[in-house]
Write a sequence for this structure.
């Protein structure tokens, strides 16, 4: 893999990480403001945990 390809992959991972954080903030907001029912909040939490596993594991080495 070229240095350029590695740089692109690092940037894509950073974008994914940002999206996961945004999803978590949205979940907290919706649960705190009552925009989501308890069942919806639970489903969103499960989705958020899945996003973390899929996009942030294993941790970056760089």
């Amino acid at each position: 893999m070229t240095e350029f390809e590695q740089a692109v992959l690092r940037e894509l991972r950073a974008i994914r990480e940002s999206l996961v954080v945004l999803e978590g903030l949205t979940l907290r907001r919706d649960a705190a403001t009552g925009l989501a029912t308890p069942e919806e909040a639970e489903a969103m939490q499960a989705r958020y945990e899945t996003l973390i596993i899929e996009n942030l594991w294993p941790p970056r080495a760089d």
Remarks:
- The chain has one domain: 3-56.
- Residues 3-56 form one domain.
